[in-house]
């Protein structure tokens, strides 16, 4: 059970960790993409505005009278643009030689510096440039760098560009933002994951604990403590059903064991009494203690006792066959003819007890079933009714077909069956001697065998008792 708990906990923990990792990765990726896109948009906007300002300045400077005012306005605009976006702006010629640099501190001329050749070639060939670099050492640390061509008015597509504009924005703020997001996510993930794993631990333990209780109860039950029962949980769920099933199984086993003990006692008594009688009479005949004129009388008694033993053995064999998985072999026969034949077989007993017999059955009743098995059912019910019907009492058999099913009822007057015995009267090894009088010939198997046969035919059987009458009923498909 410890292994089951450990495995379940580990599986739940792995699933939770993987889920958090996937969720976190997607979250961080989206945030990072959004931040980078914002940075790229801002950098592209800065570069485009710087290029527009440069083109405007070059156009204005063509008028000699406007050189000084245009230069002053241009430098102010470039400084303001650099300050707004915390950027550094480079203006170069087509070779990459720097002409002007603008920062938030100001805009000034730059002579002798060169932008990396790779950046210049990329701008000239593709029309734009984007990369993270320090721009050949001109920038402190890694920056997002963008570059475009400032196309002068009147320039042809085949002309070599005169002016290139580069803008750079520090990546430090983006990296700090990214690190903060990661740190916050990891902290929250750690807290939530810890709480989730704690809850998972207790949930898993609560799921496994009932199984541990059931395992312990099963071990006690296996050691012979058949009074062991599992407390039922308050909520009706799968665990409740398992506990209820275990308790029902324990009740059934305990009841069957009680019935088995009773059966062993009854069978032992049923075997010992006739065997003692048989042995005593045979020994009496052999040693001459019984005179010859009495021997026939005692031999008849011995014969009855042997028949009694045979009936007990046959019941045990029949019970074993009915409990096997062998399929019943069915064939068509007339149920009415069989009932009449059984009734005729009990004619002597009926006459001896002066019983009023009423057969309310159809002239013919064709049915498809196992003839020998159903013969035993009707025979057992008839014999059972005759045992307990009162002198000069009534015994009635009603048989009819309704909705494709055969309905069979046999009712007798006389002693009743108490309600508690009615609950178990069809159980194996059960003898209702308390409510129906002592029956020395019974083994507690007749009604159990009858129920097994009826159920295996796809039918049902039950009994009811009251108002001085007892009735057994069964139905089965014809």
Element layout with pairings:
Elements: H1 2-61, H2 67-85, E1 87-93, E2 98-103, E3 106-109, H3 117-126, E4 128-133, E5 143-150, E6 163-170, H4 172-222, H5 238-286, H6 292-323, E7 331-334, H7 335-345, H8 347-352, E8 356-360, E9 366-369, H9 371-388, E10 394-402, E11 405-413, H10 419-424, H11 433-436, H12 446-456, E12 460-466, E13 469-477
Parallel strand pairs: 8-10
Antiparallel strand pairs: 1-2, 1-6, 2-3, 4-5, 5-6, 7-9, 10-11, 11-13, 12-13
Helix pairs in contact: 1-2, 1-4, 4-5, 5-6, 6-12, 7-9, 9-12
Describe the structure.
It is a single chain. The chain is an alpha+beta fold and 478 residues long. It contains twelve helices and 13 strands. The chain has a six-stranded antiparallel sheet, sandwiched between helices. Strand 12 and strand 13 (469-477) form a beta hairpin. The longest helix is centred in the N-terminal third of the chain and has 60 residues, at 2-61.
For this entry, give a set of tags.
12 helices, 5-stranded mixed beta sheet, Beta-Lactamase, 3 domains, rod-shaped, Heat Shock Protein 90, 58% helix
Secondary-structure arrangement, i.e. CATH architecture of the largest domain: 2-Layer Sandwich
Number of helices: 12
> Structural class, please?
alpha+beta
Q: State the distance separating the first and last CA atoms.
A: 52 Å
Q: Got a strand count?
A: 13
Radius of gyration: 52 Å
CATH overall fold name of the largest domain:
Beta-Lactamase
| CATH-assigned homologous superfamily of the largest domain | PAS domain
CATH class of the largest domain: Alpha Beta
Q: What's the story with the biggest beta sheet?
A: 6 strands, antiparallel
Task: State mean pLDDT (0 to 100 scale).
Answer: 80
Strand order of the largest sheet: 3-2-1-6-5-4
How many discrete domains? 3
Beta-strand proportion: 15-25%
| Overall body shape | rod-shaped
Extract low-pLDDT stretches. 433-440
The helicity comes to 55-70%
The string of secondary-structure elements, in order, is: HHEEEHEEEHHHEHHEEHEEHHHEE
């Amino acid at each position: 059970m410890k292994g089951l708990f450990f495995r379940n906990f580990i599986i739940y923990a792995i699933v939770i960790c993987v889920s958090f990792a996937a969720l976190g990765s997607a979250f961080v990726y989206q945030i990072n993409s959004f931040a980078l896109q914002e940075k790229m948009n801002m950098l592209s906007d800065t570069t485009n505005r710087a290029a527009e300002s440069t083109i405007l300045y070059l156009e204005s400077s063509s008028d000699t009278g406007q050189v000084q005012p245009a230069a002053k306005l241009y430098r102010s605009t470039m400084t303001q643009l650099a300050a707004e976006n915390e950027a550094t702006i480079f203006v170069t010629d087509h070779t990459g030689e720097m002409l002007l640099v603008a920062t938030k501190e100001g805009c000034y001329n730059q002579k002798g510096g060169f932008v990396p050749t790779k950046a210049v070639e990329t701008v000239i060939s593709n029309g734009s440039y984007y990369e993270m670099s320090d721009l050949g050492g001109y920038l402190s640390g890694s920056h997002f760098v963008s570059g475009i061509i400032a196309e002068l008015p009147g320039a042809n597509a085949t002309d070599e560009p005169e002016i290139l504009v580069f803008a750079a924005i520090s990546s430090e703020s983006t990296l700090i933002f990214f690190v903060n997001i990661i740190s916050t996510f990891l902290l929250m993930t750690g807290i939530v994951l810890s709480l989730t794993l704690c809850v998972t631990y207790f949930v898993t333990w609560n799921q496994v604990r009932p199984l541990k209780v059931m395992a312990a109860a099963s071990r006690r039950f296996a050691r012979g403590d058949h009074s062991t029962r599992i407390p039922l949980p308050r909520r009706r769920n799968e665990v409740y059903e398992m506990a209820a099933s275990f308790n029902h199984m324990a009740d059934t086993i305990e009841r069957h064991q009680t019935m088995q003990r009773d059966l062993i006692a009854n069978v032992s008594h049923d075997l010992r009494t006739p065997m003692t009688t048989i042995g005593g009479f045979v020994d009496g005949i052999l040693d001459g203690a019984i005179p010859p004129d009495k021997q026939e009388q005692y031999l008849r008694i011995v014969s009855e006792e042997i028949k009694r033993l045979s009936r007990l053995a046959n019941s045990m064999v029949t019970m074993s066959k009915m409990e096997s998985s062998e399929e019943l072999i069915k064939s068509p026969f007339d149920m009415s003819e069989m009932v009449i034949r059984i009734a005729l077989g009990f004619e002597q007993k009926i006459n001896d007890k002066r019983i009023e017999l009423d057969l309310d059955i159809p002239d013919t009743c064709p049915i498809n079933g196992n003839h020998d098995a159903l013969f035993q059912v009707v025979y057992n019910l008839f014999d059972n009714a005759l045992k307990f019907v009162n002198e000069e009492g009534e015994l009635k058999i009603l048989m009819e077909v309704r909705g494709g099913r055969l309905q069979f009822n046999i009712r007798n007057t006389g002693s009743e069956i108490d309600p508690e015995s009615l609950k178990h009267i069809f159980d194996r090894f059960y003898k209702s001697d308390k409510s129906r009088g002592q029956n020395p010939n019974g083994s507690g198997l007749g009604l159990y065998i009858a129920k097994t046969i009826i159920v295996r035919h796809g039918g049902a059987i039950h009994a009811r008792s009251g108002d001085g009458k007892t009735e057994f009923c069964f139905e089965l498909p014809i």
